[in-house]
Automatic annotation (TrEMBL):
This is Ribonuclease N. InterPro entries: N1-like, Ribonuclease/ribotoxin. Keywords: Hydrolase, Nuclease, Signal. It comes from Streptomyces tendae. Residues 1-25 form the signal peptide. SUPFAM superfamilies: Microbial ribonucleases. Pfam families: Ribonuclease. Coiled coil: none annotated.
């Protein structure tokens, strides 16, 4: 009788263990596959201006710069290759700068988010 009572619990535990091993995340501590090979940062650890830009992206604007939302061509080839139109860029204001500055958020068509503070010379994957 005791074995019958334990069987459903054993099956449930095995099922949970199996499902835990079938995640869509990478194998390196919870980093999504699209972020593998890049440094990562939690969105909450970005500069305040970048967090505000993320909020505007999530809200669909309005954006403070005319070029916000334009297609990012990935000509540097630092992000995974996709068809043109997959990536879009948004300005992250730089305090004290009298132009758009070098900081940007780049978003991908499947929800990926990247941050650069050196005008696309390097990227950090933003974990949200």
């Amino acid at each position: 009788m005791l074995r019958r009572a334990l069987l459903p619990r054993l099956v449930a535990c095995l099922l949970l263990a199996l499902l835990a091993g079938c995640s869509t995340e990478g194998d390196d501590g919870g980093v999504p596959a699209w972020a593998e090979g890049l440094p990562t940062v939690q969105a909450s650890d970005l500069p305040a201006e970048a967090r505000r830009t993320l909020e505007l992206i999530d809200e669909g604007g309005p954006f403070p710069y005319e070029r916000d939302g334009v297609v990012f061509g990935n000509f540097e080839g630092l992000l995974p290759q996709h068809d043109r139109g997959y990536y879009h860029e948004y300005t992250v204001p730089t305090p004290g700068s009298d132009d758009r500055g070098a900081r940007r958020i780049v978003t991908g068509g499947n929800g990926e988010t990247y941050y650069t503070d050196d005008h696309f010379a390097s990227f950090t994957a933003v974990l949200r």
